């Protein structure tokens, strides 16, 4: 089975869905953020603060390249689709699923969160601006799109499994 890549905004549920989906298929799960943290020996927040976003994006591309391309479920960071090379790799090597969530829902889910370096300051403005600039890239980078806005993790997993059968 080709790798299944989950892409989407912060707070779309990529990591939680990836874990459950991997369980359902009995496959290992990878998370690009965790792979980056292991390689850097620092948290994502520390990498952004000490090394900057450009460095983080380089590590993200390297992590994506390193993760196996078969029989795995991969949760990606929300910005993985920014690099054309990442979009191409995922589209060519695996099945890419865009987990959509509307911006109001994203804001609710991330209300008390302080772990996202790109959402410091005015969260509403940051989410809106990232949402507007990234939505076309997620759509362009995915084979399937699933609206997670009012679905449970299990419902999303079931929908992905249905789509994989087609
Ligand atoms: C980012 C999303 C984060 C993490 C980093 C940058 C982004 O991952 O990779 O903070 O640019 O959207 P999650 O989508 O898992 O929060």
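Sequence proposed for the structure above (166 residues):
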């Amino acid at each position: 089975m080709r790798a299944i890549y989950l892409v989407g905004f912060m707070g779309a549920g990529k990591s939680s869905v990836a874990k459950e989906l991997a369980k359902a298929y009995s496959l290992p799960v990878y998370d690009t953020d965790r792979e980056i943290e292991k390689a850097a020996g620092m948290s994502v927040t520390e990498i952004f603060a000490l090394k900057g976003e450009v460095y983080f994006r380089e590590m993200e591309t390297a992590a994506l390249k390193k993760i196996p391309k078969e029989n795995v479920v991969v949760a990606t960071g929300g910005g993985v689709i920014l690099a054309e090379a990442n979009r191409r790799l995922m589209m060519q090597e695996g099945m890419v699923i865009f987990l959509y969530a509307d911006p109001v829902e994203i804001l609710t889910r991330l209300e008390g969160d302080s772990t996202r370096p790109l959402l410091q300051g005015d969260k509403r403005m940051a989410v809106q601006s990232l949402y507007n600039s990234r939505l076309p890239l997620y759509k362009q980078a995915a084979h399937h799109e699933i609206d997670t806005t009012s679905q449970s993790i299990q419902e999303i997993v079931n929908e992905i499994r249905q789509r994989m059968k087609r």
